[in-house]
Amino acid sequence: MKIAVLPGDGIGTEIVAQALKVLEALAGDGLRLEIEQAPVGGAAYDAAGDPLPPATLKLARAADAILFGAVGGWQYDQLPRAKRPEQAILGLRKELGLFANLRPAKVFPELVEASTLRPEVVSGMDILILRELTGDIYFGQPRGMRRLDNGEREGFDTMRYSESEIRRIAHAGFRAAMKRAKKLCSVDKCNVLETSQLWREVVTEVAREYPSVELSHMYVDNAAMQLLRDPKQFDVIVTGNMFGDILSDEASMLTGSIGMLPSASLDANNKGLYEPIHGSAPDIAGKNLANPLATILSAAMMLRYSLNQDRAADRVEAAVARVLARGLRTADIHKPGMQQVGTAQMGDAVVAAL
Ligand code: IPM
Ligand code: MG
Asked: Structure pTM?
């Protein structure tokens, strides 16, 4: 199996290094992985003047799966948009057709106390957010800035979804629900947006093919509220690119920390890119403070979805649970009475628990 490893910027290199330790430990047990690294994001801009250099894209295309860290940094914020680090992740998603983004938000029993919500609200919560990843206002044309007749500037973006784009993510949502508690909640803004009107119609049509799945619809503002009020009412949430971006950050805090949430971005053949949902956190980069567990859990998702190594994936997830049960915590999830450890120590502890 060929794995392209793209650590990126900020804490990206530190957290990816921990996930690689875990994969190497599994290699000792006969898992054969061919790993090749390439720069991406700001690191690639610095090295090659391009956040997604052709060589990096080529490596990603040729790989069976991609392990991605994070991109971005304040020093790149003034660059023209096409050169900014974020274009690398957006470009990879689009170029590789990674339209289905799985963001599981599950509370480890050990971390119930780390959430800002009351334990009885989050305990036992297990949500899968399925975010459409290659359409919507993120990619819709036209977009830009223009000068109006009265001389002031106007910025504009286009929210759009075609029927086929909605249909394929809806199918992915129903299939995911079939493997879980068979409840699918489609989130839109159908009371205001035409895009959402079509979204709701198409999801409702697709539902006929999955009679055993209970489908509900929810407006995105209500969904944001319900996630805090009663997150356990949700099983699978399917939604568009921008609503999914926002709701998945919100859901991460229910689990205690954004440093815990992995993700998988899959194409139609389950080739995937695996990354933590958090960003590059330049403020804590290089300080051995970042939580590597979201990246390690992303590597577990890679084993499960792209490499068909369910047993190895189970082992990694169990090792993470064991380390948490032993009381090891990075700063973001630390509570009095627990043992605070750094990024590298957390990685080592997961390897030892394996
Ligand atoms: C995410 C991130 C990205 C997004 C950024 C870095 C472009 O927030 O993966 O959720 O908006 O999709
Ligand atoms: Mg985001």
From this structure: 0.94
